[in-house]
Specification:
about 280 residues, mainly beta, 4-stranded antiparallel sheet, 3-stranded mixed sheet, about 10% helix
């Protein structure tokens, strides 16, 4: 499986790529299977039921990125997976200020049946270095729309705290707000996350780690999108040699628990009643 950018994918989704595929694979117990993959595309209609699109989008053989695969997050993960333990629920879109009026913050929610997830959206903010004390956060700027991408969530790479090293945030090296040292170079004008978990927002007190080894104490990046395979904690559960079926099955079960519960639902036999608030796919 390869990987392509969104720009490349746009030229192929309406071309000759298939919307159905027969894919060989194995279950977690090691049983050989043939999976029939079928992609159906629906248009989201405001305040109404979804409607079948005139043309179904093609199956993606590899991950599709928003832009350059080296510097952007995943927009569509590969469809070529012969067996899944559960259903993926992913939302790509924008947050919209309520009533079309510029706002400094708002809550965006995604609901599937009884499962609901919320994220907090801020306008652009930066950190201000304060001599020998806790940094300050500027007030957020008003916004009308905000892309729901992990590039705008907590994370990033700190290249200013240490001249001899770079410090990536393993859960999201593409985000913003990650800093190790409380120094003018690393803190002043540091862009802060636009997308946060309402339960665990980044605070001035926890902005600077002091010690890179404390990165696990920082907030998880918030969002509705795919978590790339190379980011933690997903990268730790990439799998093992096929011979050890028991351990592989245990890893698969652990992986499902690590993915946010709001993104993973049990296999559903019927339709998914959904509700989107302040966002657009």
């Amino acid at each position: 499986m390869g990987m392509v950018s969104e720009r490349e994918a746009a030229t192929t989704t309406t071309g000759s790529l298939p919307v159905t595929k027969v894919l060989p694979g194995q279950t977690p117990e090691g049983e050989y299977i043939l999976s029939v993959l079928l992609k159906r595309t629906y248009n989201i209609v405001p305040n109404n039921s979804c409607q079948r699109a005139e043309r179904d989008k093609a199956l993606f053989a590899g991950d599709v990125y928003w832009d350059d695969p080296m510097n952007s997050s995943v927009r569509y993960e590969s469809d070529y997976i012969p067996y899944k333990l559960a259903t993926d629920v992913v939302l790509n879109g924008k947050a919209y200020a309520p009533r079309g009026t510029p706002s400094t913050s708002c809550v965006v929610s995604l609901q599937i049946a009884d499962f609901r997830k919320q994220i907090l959206i801020f306008g652009d903010r930066v950190a201000r270095y304060q001599d020998s004390t806790i940094p300050e956060f500027t007030e957020p700027s008003p916004f009308l729309t905000m892309d729901l991408r992990y590039e705008l969530a907590y994370g990033g790479i700190d290249i200013r705290s240490d001249k001899t090293a770079t410090y990536p945030y393993p859960r999201n090296p593409l985000g913003r707000g990650f800093a190790v040292a409380n120094s003018p170079k690393s803190v002043d004008h540091l862009p802060l996350p636009n997308i946060e978990d309402p339960e665990t927002p980044l605070t001035p007190e926890q902005l600077c780690l002091g010690n890179y080894q404390k990165w696990e104490q920082q907030p998880m990046p918030a969002g509705f999108g795919w978590v790339p395979k190379t980011w933690l904690p997903r990268a730790q559960l990439a799998g093992i040699l096929p011979a050890d079926r028991a351990t592989e099955h245990e890893l698969r079960q652990a992986y499902v628990k690590l993915v946010p519960a709001e993104h993973r639902q049990a296999y559903l036999e019927h339709g998914l009643p959904g509700n989107l608030m302040n966002n657009n796919a």
